[in-house]
From TrEMBL:
Domain LTD span(s) in chain numbering: 389-532
Pfam family, one: LTD
SUPFAM superfamilies: Fibronectin type III, His-Me finger endonucleases
Family: Belongs to the EndA/NucM nuclease family.
Family matches, as PROSITE patterns: FN3, LTD
Claim: Nuclease is one of the keywords in the record: yes
Region forming the signal peptide: 1-22
InterPro entries: Endonuclease-I, FN3_dom, FN3_sf, His-Me_finger_sf, Ig-like_fold, Lamin_tail_dom, Secre_tail
Protein name (record): Endonuclease I
PANTHER family in UniProt: ENDONUCLEASE-1
Keywords carried by this UniProt record: Hydrolase, Nuclease, Signal
Positions of the Fibronectin type-III domain: 304-392
Length: 639
């Protein structure tokens, strides 16, 4: 008879003494091999819990170290050796994976304490709120769902579920911007696509850490399978002990798990936690278990989703383009859509629409969309749909923008934002951030008062409390955001994305000391690169606050000419348009676009340099010629 051997990890403060277990122990998951569905989940629970199980020969038990011991663990192991590699605290709510962090924390010395604003200090966040399980042990001290996070953002997230935020329904709180400085956000659940079925407030981390959050949840509901049915008051849980997650949240977490695969950071943390408390997160070691349990019980899903069908491409302000498509279907479930513009990947979304960043006027863009399921199967590409953006010859601006900046003597400091979009704009989605003295990140934030808005043709002025010029023109006073000194960058943000800037982030050189800047009348759109030529400069304490003039110059498609190509007559009164094309230029295709950007006529064969337009209605059209000299765009009027 073989003797069962039970290994119990004893409490230790000297974590370095157990560094021998730096990977998955041999045989750790043997008793789970071949299982699927909730049977697999229950067996994984037995492997990672704190109970001696007779069917597991060599068992490594979860030994709770207690909540307070996590301070030492975080100081030693939750460090940034992956992004800036500076050994600061690795906080998913402040980490900027693609650039400089907005702020950094030194282990132990920057631990909360008290906090008032984002960037003050860090503390420990329970990814599954401890109110869910009434602060009971071992859940409260379980390292697998305890993360170091900024104190104010931890409080901002509060006990809200994780979900996909509707950017048009963000929640405002004092002392913090929304989105936060790294883009995490709080607001109403989108209630569309994979997040359909829930309308309450949710918290959404940045894409870099969504998979981490998903795999923490799958660990938690597996580890505490025998208790979780008692915690159904939490909106993410459905009161069962098998599926556990309510349908909208299961769909969201499956999507996040697929979009953000296991990272080296997670692998290292899993190993360190195993050394610390004796159990592992199975879904980091074997992410395929997630689909085998919650994805229909199939060990191998090789069926790709159906092919999405793009239903529309529409020009938004800016211009930006929004692509919309019908939901794809899948044998398990579609978790994400990948969007390509002109053959280049531009982004992934769980919605059935995607809005691009700023694009150019009078330019053709072509889109494809792919559907992806939880197993990573990808559909065929959608049929390509192309769209030409219209000319910038309107009489309204595309977006709010800075229109005046005063950096005068003493506290004579103010910012003015103008609205020339053609309609009143609520400021709930906007914020301003300041970067002091060449700091590479934003160091101060300002949220507009709740309910504030700007009428078309009007401006909004934020002044310093010590302002002595144009004091009657201020709409709000805020000393923090007007604490600039002529070398500090100031950014205007919409839904957490920078849309306009004064100064250069990370550059401490003086660009407007003791100076008033007024935006040129011809500038009708914001700019994320500070361009001095867009501004008129005035002497210190000069004030024009309270109004701004904007002149709409528009553009002319003739600027796109790459050869001496013309079309005539123009306007045309008949059914034929003629093209004058030099002999050394070859035309391969001519496309006619309405002023709404719709392709209404495409011609590949041109006879006698003429094209029939008999089927086109009267109006204005953009005509794009694909030529050996490049693309050339002309404007045509049909009378």
């Amino acid at each position: 008879m073989q003797m069962n051997k039970k290994l119990l990890f004893l409490s230790t403060l000297l974590l370095a003494t157990v560094t021998g277990y730096a990977q998955i122990p041999t045989g750790y998951y043997d008793t789970a091999t071949g299982l699927t569905g909730y049977t697999l989940k229950t067996q994984l629970k037995k492997i990672i819990d704190d109970v001696n199980d007779s069917d597991i020969t060599t068992e490594y038990l979860h030994n709770d170290q207690g909540y307070n011991a996590m301070d030492s663990f975080i100081s030693m192991y939750d460090l940034d050796t992956y992004y800036e590699n500076d050994n600061s605290i690795l906080d998913p709510y402040s980490e900027n994976p693609n650039g400089t962090d907005p702020y950094n924390y030194t282990p132990t010395s920057d631990e909360c304490g008290n906090y008032n604003s984002e960037g003050d200090c860090y503390n420990k966040e329970h990814v599954i709120p401890q109110s869910v399980f009434s602060q009971a042990s071992p859940m409260r001290g379980d390292a697998h769902h305890l993360l170091p996070t900024d104190g104010r953002v931890n409080g901002f997230r509060s006990n809200y579920p994780f979900g996909i935020v509707n950017d048009n329904n963000l929640v405002s709180q004092s002392g913090i911007s929304n989105p936060t400085q790294n883009g995490s956000k709080l607001g109403g659940n989108l209630n569309s696509g994979v997040s359909a079925g829930y309308t309450g407030t949710v918290f959404e981390p940045i894409d870099e850490f969504k998979g981490d959050i998903a795999r923490i949840y799958f660990y938690f509901i597996t580890r505490y399978e025998d208790q979780v049915s008692n915690w159904s008051s939490y909106d993410m849980f459905n009161g069962s002990s098998d599926q556990v997650l309510d349908e909208p949240f299961l769909s969201i977490l499956l999507a996040w798990n697929a979009q953000d695969p296991v990272s080296q950071k997670e692998i290292d943390r899993n190993n360190n936690i195993y050394n610390y408390q004796g159990n592992r997160n199975p879904f980091i070691d074997h992410p395929e278990y997630i689909n085998e349990i919650w994805g229909g019980g199939s060990t191998t899903d090789t069926t790709p989703p159906s092919t999405p069908v793009i239903s529309a491409v529409n020009q938004q302000a800016g211009p930006t383009l929004q692509v919309t498509w019908g939901a794809a279907t899948d044998n398990v479930g579609v978790t994400a859509y990948e969007v390509y513009m002109d053959g280049t990947y531009v982004g992934t979304t769980s919605n059935t629409y995607y809005t691009t960043a700023l694009v150019s006027y009078e330019t053709v863009y072509c889109f494809n969309v792919y559907a992806v399921d939880a197993a990573g199967n990808t559909s065929n590409a959608s049929t390509q749909v192309c769209f030409m953006t219209t000319a910038d010859n309107g009489t309204t601006a595309s977006e709010l923008l800075f229109t005046e900046y005063i950096e005068g003597s003493g506290s004579n400091k103010a910012l003015e934002i103008g609205n020339f979009t053609g309609t009143a704009v609520s400021l709930d989605d906007y914020s301003i951030q300041l970067s002091a003295n060449g700091n590479a990140g934003w160091t101060a934030s300002y949220n507009f008062p709740s309910g504030a808005s700007i009428a078309h043709g009007d401006v909004y002025v934020i002044g310093n409390g010590g302002l002595t010029v144009c004091t009657s023109e201020t709409d709000d006073l805020n000393n923090a955001i007007t604490g600039f000194n002529g070398n500090d960058a100031i950014g205007l943000f919409k839904n957490g994305a920078l849309i306009d800037i004064i100064g250069e982030l990370g550059n401490s050189s003086n660009f407007a000391q003791n100076t008033t800047l007024v935006r040129n009348e011809s500038i009708s759109y914001p700019n994320t690169t500070y361009t001095p030529s867009e501004w008129n400069t005035f002497a210190s304490n000069t004030c024009f606050l309270g109004s701004h003039t904007m002149v709409f110059l528009g553009t002319d498609a003739v600027a796109l000419d790459k050869a001496s190509i013309s079309l005539y007559p123009n306007p045309v009164h008949g059914t034929v348009v003629n093209f004058d094309i030099p002999q050394n230029i070859t035309v391969t295709q001519i496309d006619f676009y309405s002023v709404l950007g719709k392709n209404v006529l495409s011609v590949q064969s041109i006879r006698n340099h003429q094209v029939s337009i008999a089927n086109l209605s009267k109006g204005i059209y953009l005509v794009q010629l694909q030529t050996s000299a490049g693309a050339v765009t002309k404007k045509l009027v049909i009378k």
